[in-house]
Amino acid sequence: MIAIALQSGSNGNCIYVQGGGVRLLLDAGISGVQAQRRLARRGVDIRRVDALIISHDHADHVRCAGIYQRKFGIPIYVTPKTLRGAEQWVDLGPLTDVRHFQAGETLDFGGLHVETLPTPHDGADGVAFVAGCGAGRLGVLTDLGHAFEGLRQAIESLDAVFIESNYDPELLRRGPYPEYLKLRIRGPGGHLSNGESAALLAGAGGSRLRWACLSHLSETNNNPELALRTHRETMGERLPLSVAGRYEPTGVLRV
Questions:
Q1: How far apart are CA 131 and CA 11, in angstroms?
Q2: 34: nearest Cα among 217, 243, 248
C-alpha cells in the first residue's frame, strides 16, 4: 500500500490510499482542484479513484464530496446518519452515486478492504479507518473524541498510522478560543492532545508499527515542532514520525 495525506487539519482533510489495484480517497474537505493537483504532483490521476469514503459530517471532512462525484465520477461511501448530518452543515449539491454503509462495517473493494471503527467524536455517526491490503494494515485515526476502548488494540494491529495529535493543553488553555470551544476540544467528543496521542503510540510498544504520521494539528493550539517533541519525550526515537501538513501534501508513504 501507499498513502498520501493531501491535507490535514480543521481547514480540510483528505487522504489517498492505494493498494491491490484499488485507489481510495478518505474524506473530501479540500477542493476538487486542490485534490486533483496534489495527486497529480504525486503521479496519480484523480479520475482513476475508485471510491470516496466519508468519516463524519463535519465540513472539514465532507464539504467537497459532491464536487468529487460530479467532476470526477467518484462514488461516495457514507453512513446514512453522516449524510443527513452533512446536509445540515454544507450544500453538497445533487448526488447520484451514494453507497451507504453502517459504522463498524468492513468495506470490500477486492484487493483492498477498509474497516470502519465507530468513534465518540461529536459528529453524527463518525468512524475512523483501517485499510488492509494483503498482510499490510494502515490506520487513519483522527477526530477520535477520546482514547476509547479498543483504540490501543487497533493501533497494535497496524503497520502504519495517521494519528490525531490535535492540541497542546497549555496552548489551548492560554489561547484565544472561547471557553465553550476549549471545553469541546478537550472533552470526550473532541480531539486527542499531543500527550494522549503519544501515550497511545508508546503503549503499543511491542506492536508491528513501522511509522506514524501526526495529523489534524490545530493551527492555533499546536505546531509541528511541539507535537513531535512531545511524542519524542514520551516514546523516544524508536518509531519514525512525520507530520501531515495543513497546506501541502505529504510525500508518498509506504506501508
A1: 24
A2: 248
CA 215 to chain centre: 7
Q: Which three cell numbers stand for residue 111?
A: 484487493
The single-letter DSSP state of residue 120 is -
| Whole-number Å distance between alpha carbons of 75 and 63 | 15
Beta bridge partners of 22: 19
pLDDT at 205 over 90: no
Q: What is the rounded distance in angstroms from the CA atom of residue 130 to the CA atom of residue 208?
A: 14
Asked if 51 contacts 41 with a C-beta cutoff of 8 angstroms, the reply is: no
The 10s digit of each residue's pLDDT in 6-17 is 999 999 999 999
Put residue 9 in one of left, alpha, beta given phi > 0 → left and psi -120 to 50 → alpha: left
Q: What is the pLDDT of residues 216-232, one digit of tens each?
A: 999 999 999 999 999 99
Burial of 34-58, coded b for 16+ CB within 10 Å and e otherwise, reads bbbebbeeeebebeebebbbbbbbb
- CATH 3.60.15.10 at 2-254, yes or no: yes
Contact 31, 64 (CB under 8 A): yes
Residues 5 and 162: beta-carbon distance below 8 Å? yes
What residue ranges do the domains of the chain occupy?
A: 2-254
* C-alpha span between 178 and 1 (Å, rounded): 41
| Residue 255, pLDDT above cutoff 90 | yes
Q: Supply the DSSP string of 3-37, one letter for each residue.
A: EEEEE-STT--EEEEEETTEEEEE---S-HHHHHH
